[in-house]
Aspartate carbamoyltransferase (Ahniella affigens), 945 residues
Amino acid sequence: MRHVQFAEDGRLRHLITLDGVSRQELEALIETALALRQTALRPVNKLPTLRGRTVVNLFFEPSTRTRTSFELAAVRLSADVVNFDVAHSSTKKGETLIDTLRTLEAMRCDLFVVRHKENGTPALLAEHAQPGVAIVNGGDGNHAHPTQGLLDMLTIRRHKGEDFSKLSVAVIGDILHSRVARSDIQALKTLGVQDLRLAAPAELLAPELRAFGQVFDRIDHAIAGADVIMMLRLQKERMDQALIASDADYFRQWGLSQERLALAKPDAIVMHPGPMNREVEIASSVADGPQSVILEQVGNGVPMRMAVMSRLLAG
Amino acid sequence: MRHVQFAEDGRLRHLITLDGVSRQELEALIETALALRQTALRPVNKLPTLRGRTVVNLFFEPSTRTRTSFELAAVRLSADVVNFDVAHSSTKKGETLIDTLRTLEAMRCDLFVVRHKENGTPALLAEHAQPGVAIVNGGDGNHAHPTQGLLDMLTIRRHKGEDFSKLSVAVIGDILHSRVARSDIQALKTLGVQDLRLAAPAELLAPELRAFGQVFDRIDHAIAGADVIMMLRLQKERMDQALIASDADYFRQWGLSQERLALAKPDAIVMHPGPMNREVEIASSVADGPQSVILEQVGNGVPMRMAVMSRLLAG
Amino acid sequence: MRHVQFAEDGRLRHLITLDGVSRQELEALIETALALRQTALRPVNKLPTLRGRTVVNLFFEPSTRTRTSFELAAVRLSADVVNFDVAHSSTKKGETLIDTLRTLEAMRCDLFVVRHKENGTPALLAEHAQPGVAIVNGGDGNHAHPTQGLLDMLTIRRHKGEDFSKLSVAVIGDILHSRVARSDIQALKTLGVQDLRLAAPAELLAPELRAFGQVFDRIDHAIAGADVIMMLRLQKERMDQALIASDADYFRQWGLSQERLALAKPDAIVMHPGPMNREVEIASSVADGPQSVILEQVGNGVPMRMAVMSRLLAG
């Protein structure tokens, strides 16, 4: 799947996964987003970058923050946005996904943000997209969520500087079901993180990710001395009920409490992709505390998505 | 709840209820809306007032006219509008209302129009809103619908002039379930109406409103000599079935027919917040007749909401 | 119904059906759309034609391509667009369709695109529309889909030139349930097509259309020597199950295969209004083959709808 997103000259044509995206490309996106941050988060005139271009939000899975973040990113670049309401779509009449893409391409839509519960749907669309049309993965199954990975890197970059190689980063929780974890881990490795720690209940650890970091079976050990703590959402909606005894039990064993946070470096930052299950994977006092950068992550999503859209549609 | 909407210097920061809003403030909003009316209702270039600002329609209750009215008001002030589809929202994943607010604030959304079936939701969000972010109540339970109250005042102002003190105003029908009635009554009292008449079936009269006007148990008595007749929607969807015997029965006892309208002053105006139950609380011949200002009310909603948004986001 | 769409001076005020629209008018719309095509399908600055105007998509039936096509047409003419989500509308509270129209008119909405499963709904709204307000039929029951008819004419015009009189055109498939077939047939006759062929299973042939062309009970005979082949979607959702034995059976008898296409003129074009049932009414190899203009039809929808909106709102 990873090769579908690159043009023959190596340029990024789509954004489907961070797997295989070069360090140079990641850094360029982060720098672009940093520069756009001012514009994105201030009430000023819009940038004319995508004037006359059309962005389609093709969300086959419900979302608030992600759809709105992409919508605002597009609007603040002066693009026109069409929200494709899937419940109302012709897919009900049996039109295939590819025909839907072809149809919207024929109306001269330029960029499609695709969220789907099945792994591989954005890659499938990217394979079939016409020249000049870009597909951005807005999250597919537990495969990838590359713009979340990128905005997380932007957030770390703002707090910890350009050099990721010295950072200790702990990724904690329901790694198995998390597309965010996969995209974060790929980006962290590409940006040079050596000390990458993965901590999850045994039944929620994705076996294929073991190769990327040091695996811990206790949260305390993973947190000790960390610079960055990335908590994951417990995705109860995707799991067999029996995996987790109770919310209270999960919090006791795997939740980020203030006591546990004290084990990390004093200037460690706490991240979460949202939406949070408060008092399940994270204590409210931590989520709302001084080391939390969770709302900044949300804010960074807008300029990062502006950077991605600009890059894919430029030229 | 009423104090959450004012800044320390007394300035209006949110609009949650008309309870406690000063006469000066009401009059300023009405005058602003009068001035905007021309622009709002003519196909001209938009006003640049809210260029670069983002308005979110956060509707937890279905609505046509109100959402569209706010959307058009925002668009005609050059704001960007995001419609937050609650059925598709992360609230399904268990995110709290406050986290939803925080998330959208972090993306630099400036004003939230909130409609919710539970009393107090807009006030709750206003309590938690960041500085510079405004909450507008788009209707909560049977508590308040302040922009409807304001647009009703604008409509009366256009027909009856600036001095409300001499007007006889009758509010008639399902007062118990009506957030519109509450906001109208508060505004009418603040603007100096002395002769305020409330008429409702005993079981649909809100006891706490008795203090605001003279209570009638027959519609004919309430209408006699009135300048303004504000009919209310019979909110069958909010009531125990048994309260009303039948539509025909209700119309016979409480409906505004042409015969009854003849009891009012010859130049009395007939108002209704919509959507109407024709031949239940109001005869079609009255609703569509020469004394009806019902469609003008709808039209006045756009400039009044423009006035409110301008006022809350200005500076 | 056909007269509701014309003003007293003969000018087109609404677009409800192509029945009765003059050849001169059809040709003017086609020429306007041809001129707009460049603009509509290129990422350039928008046309200012409808700046300050408001277009409402009033879709009571689900749709993807049609709603999006109208939305993009409006946006590319600089109009503001409101999508009226019917599931969330006040029609649930019992407001009549006419009251909904009145309400949106009062907010100064200028043009309504109406799609409804019942024949005659757009005409009903056109009868009640205020002066200056235009209704465009976005498809009603099996009655009419005039903008689809127009974009099909634009597509034929681009491939076969201005003179329709020498063309052999075959309309094939589920004519009974097709509003597209009705609008196409009316436009083709008005534009001078002499050799119009209708081919359908006996139970899917609309009796009242027999007068417009030569009826065939075998697809091969209808295709032989044709310049234009218009395939129709098999509308299984609108038919008694028993009418069609199976998809495979239908394809065998009525599907457009490559073998059958070879019976037509070598430069014949293949059209389909979409969404397609692949391998039911049309083989994928034909739909995606060199004679197919199906995606061009979709693309032509945008400039044609721009032409219609411009014409109805101009002046």
User: Anything to note?
Assistant: Strands of chain C lie at 54-59, 80-85, 111-116, 134-140, 168-172, 195-199, 214-216, 228-231, 269-271. Residues 2-145+298-313 of chain C form a domain with the Rossmann fold fold (CATH 3.40.50.1370). The first strand of chain C starts at residue 54 and ends at 59. Chain C has two domains: 2-145+298-313, 146-294.
